[in-house]
Amino acid sequence: MPPHTSSEQTAPHRRFLASILIPLLTAAMFLVLALEPELRLAVPLLVGVSAAATMLLAFVLYRGESRPYAWSPAVILGVALLLRLMFVTAPAQLSDDIYRYLWDGHNVLSGINPYAAAPAAMTPQTEMRQIHQAINHKEYTTIYPPAAQLVFAAGTALGGTVTGLKAFLVLIDLVLCAMTILLLQQLGLPIWRAVLYAWNPLPVLEIAGSGHVDGAGMALFLAAVLLLFRYGGSRTGAAGSGAVFAAAALIKLFPLVLGPVLFLLVPRPRRLHFAAGFCYGATLLSIPFLPDLVRIWDSLGAYGKNWEFSGFAFNALRSATGSGSLARLALVAVLLVCIAAATWRTAAAQAPENAQDGQVTPVKARRVLAACYAVAMALLLTTPTLQPWYALILATLLPFAAGPAGVVLCWAVLLTYRVQLPYFILGEWIESGWVTAAVFLAPVTAWGMGRLLSRSRQAGDPSVSSPAGR
C-alpha cells in the first residue's frame, strides 16, 4: 500500500478546523450586532456583518457540495439556539409589528374579537396603554388571519411582554430548524444544509430580533410536507396535511402561493382528502372569529391597493405605464404565470412516475420543494411591498434547493433597512431608488453568474451536479 501523501493526511484536519471555525465565526459576527444598543443607528454595520455571515453560508454551500460537513443535529440546533438567544431579550428595534401582535393576543385572551374594531376605536386598559401607543396604523383592523391570532394569544400568555412573545416565536423557529433537519434526512439530503436557514442572519434578526410571525407559518408548511412524505398515502395523513397547510396559510397568506405546487406532492388517490382537510382546517380556525372576520378584507384591500415598499418591478412598471393599479395587476399576472409554469414543469417531470401515485418518493418531494423555491423567488421579485421578513418564505426553502440567487436575496432585503436611519433621526421615511434596484438586481445577477459557472463546470466535468444555477 502506498504511503499517505501530506495532502491526504491534512485533509481531515482541515475539514475538522472548518467544522469548528465556521460556527465560531458565525457566532462572533452575530455577537457584534447583538452588542449594538440601537440597530437603527447601526444599519451600515448590520448590512456589513450580515453580508459577511451570508458569504460564509455561501462558502458552506459551495464547499459542502464536494466536501460535506459533519455537523450533528445537536450542533446545528445548539448554534441556532445561541444565535437567537443573543437577540430575544432585546427590544424589537427594526419593526414595530410585534406591538400589533401583543394587542391582538391580549384581545383574544380577554375574549374580544380582534377583528371587531381597529385599535384607534378602542380605549386600552391601563396595562395596555404603552402597547397601544406603539401600534402602527391604528386606524386599520388587524390584517393577520385567524391562525396568527392563536399564535399571538399563546405568546402573549407568557407574560404579555415583547420578550415573552419573541421567546415563543423563537421556540417555534427552533422547531422549524429541527423539522428542516428531519426532512433533509428523509429526502436523502445532507443535514449540514440546515445551517443555510438555522444560521442565516435573516431569520435570526427577523424572528429573534423583531419577533415576526412568518416563521410560524413556514414551520407549519414544513410540517405539512413532512406529513405528506410520511403518511400522504393514507386518508388521515393526506387530510391532516391539508389541515396543517390551511393553518400555515392562515398565519401568513404567503404560503398560499405554494399551494398549487404542494398539491402535486399529494398522491392522486388522496388529493380529495387533502383538499377536504384544507377546507375543514380553514373553517375550524375561522369560525371563532365570525362574523367580524369579514373586516379583514377591508384591511387587506387597503394593503393591496396602497402599500408599496422596495418593489423594483412595481416602480419600473408604474413609471412605464403611469398607473399604480395597472402595475399591480401586471405583476399579479406575472406571478400567476410563474406559479402556473412551476406547477406545469413539476407535473410534467412527475408524469413518468404515475405508476407510483400511491406514494410520495424523495425524488418527488425534492422536485416539489425546488419548485416552491422558484415560486417564492417569483413572489419576492414581483411584490410591490418587499419587507425584509417577507423573504423568510424563501429562507425556509434554502436548505432544500439553495442557489446563489436565493442566498443573495435573503441578504439583499436587509439593505432596505436604510430607511431606518432618517426615520429614526428625523422622522422621515425616505426610500432609496438605488437600494430598491440593488435588492432586485443582486439576486438576478447572482442567478446569471451561477448559471454561467454551472455550465462551465459541467462542460469540464459532465458528472458534476451543482445548485449554482438556481
UniProtKB/TrEMBL annotation:
Keyword set, alphabetical order: Membrane, Transmembrane, Transmembrane helix
Keyword Glycoprotein recorded: no
GO CC entries: plasma membrane
Molecular function terms from GO: hexosyltransferase activity
Keyword Transmembrane helix part of the UniProt annotation: yes
Coiled coil residues, start to end: none
Residue ranges crossing the lipid bilayer per the database entry: 16-35, 41-62, 74-94, 143-162, 169-192, 243-266, 272-290, 326-345, 365-382, 389-414, 434-453
Pfam families tied to this protein: MptA_B_family (PF26314)
Top-rank taxon: Bacteria
Protein's UniProt name: DUF2029 domain-containing protein
